[in-house]
Design goal:
Number of strands: 2
Radius of gyration: 20 Å
Largest sheet: 2 strands, antiparallel
Strand order of the largest sheet: 1-2
Helix content: 55-70%
Shape: globular
């Protein structure tokens, strides 16, 4: 197992273990683990507007994506320079990859690598713009642990792609576009569009008729995928990172472990959010599932 694969695996297991401890309703773990609506669940003694040195505003989610833009932009520029011009990784990128355990795979296409880092770039830019210009945040908080984990994820997801990428020079006009490249890009575009629509629905829930943000307002979301699940934004996040793995047909070990981390994180977040909805809204639609339509 590669070093970065092990890191993603450890992070995933830490999330699972943390959730198990949350279920025990001890004092410390829920404080560090739960964020947003999860901090409003009955039985934990947590408060959304609690002030403490280990809590930061949930609106700081934008920092995750800004970090992702900075780090992945460097990765994307290095990838373009290597594949289209120099044929070798820049020394700084090569040094980082060697530290993280670079293991070139002959089964990975340079075109798929280019598409992957471009898709990640589009994702972090879109999410940053949504956080700044679309989302309407309450006074809800998250712990520094969650904040640091989020920063680390977006700092390393781009370089994770390169750690198994071939070092070569290519000509784009001679590279065949495979069916899985087309499928992955199509799924990514659809999921990104849908996630943007869902985030706009969320934002409107906090606005009164004049468009002003109601800081403490909570309502049941309706429309689009909300007809089927409580957390379509989490489902679409999983689909977006699934599309990245389709590019490599499951041959990119590190990205598979990063995907597993995303799935684990989104599933647990969906369970917590779904529980909050059912607890706070007695009339909550009983047919809605937490994450997967008709199933879960």
């Amino acid at each position: 197992m590669l070093f970065l694969s092990a890191c993603w695996l450890i992070a995933m297991l830490a999330i699972i273990f943390g959730y198990i401890l949350v279920l025990s309703k001890s004092i410390l773990i829920p404080t560090l683990y739960l964020f947003g609506k999860g901090r409003g669940l009955t039985g934990y003694g947590l408060h959304q507007d609690e002030h403490s040195f280990y809590l930061v505003p949930k609106r700081w989610f934008s920092h995750f994506y800004f970090c992702g833009i900075v780090c992945n932009s460097l990765v994307m520029l290095a990838t373009i320079n290597t594949y289209l011009y120099s044929g070798t990784w820049p020394l700084a990128i090569k040094y980082i990859m060697d530290m993280l355990g670079h293991s070139e795979s002959g089964q990975i296409s340079p075109l798929s690598v280019l598409l992957a880092v471009t898709m990640i770039e589009i994702q972090v830019i879109r999410r940053f713009l949504e956080c700044v210009y679309v989302s309407s945040y309450s006074r809800s908080t998250m712990s520094l642990v969650i904040y640091i984990v989020g920063l680390m994820f977006y700092a390393f997801v781009g370089i994770s792609v390169l750690c198994q990428a071939p070092e070569t020079k290519i000509k784009l006009d001679t590279l065949p576009v495979q069916w899985f490249d087309t499928l992955a890009v199509a799924i990514f575009i659809w999921a990104s569009y849908k996630q943007n629509r869902i985030n706009k629905i969320f934002a409107k829930l906090r606005q009164d008729k004049s468009g002003h943000v109601e800081d403490r307002a909570h309502h049941i979301p309706h429309g689009d995928l909300f007809r089927l699940v409580s957390c379509p934004h989490y489902l679409l996040e999983i689909i977006i990172y699934t599309s990245l793995n389709i590019l490599f047909l499951g041959q990119h070990e590190i990205l598979l472990y990063a995907w597993a981390f995303v799935v684990c994180n989104q599933v647990i977040s969906a369970i917590i959010t779904h529980s909050w909805y059912k607890e706070h809204f007695p009339s909550y639609p009983p047919e809605r599932k937490a994450l997967i339509p008709y199933i879960f």
